[in-house]
Amino acid sequence: MKCVICKSEDIELKKVDEEIKFENDIILVPIEVLVCNNCSERYYERKTIQQLESIKERIEKKEIPVENIGKILRPKVAYKLRQIVHTAALVNQLSRELAV
Ligand SMILES: [Zn+2]
Asked: What pTM does this model have?
């Protein structure tokens, strides 16, 4: 099998954590899936996708208990994010001017 993204043949079955979004939370579900070792693209079998959907439904119905293993955080100060965006825009603008 070849990776459709990078054409590498270095693909193997791996245990990974699949992220399922639930309200403001992310639930990590351990699954086995084919992964490209070169670009990290994951290849899901239909059966795996169906199992993940079923797990998500059962979590929503609280049939599967989950535990808190950490937090998801983001910067509190909005202007710092704007500064980052501005910097990125400036870099884009500069690289376009240099390319002309
Ligand atoms: Zn690949």
From this structure: 0.66
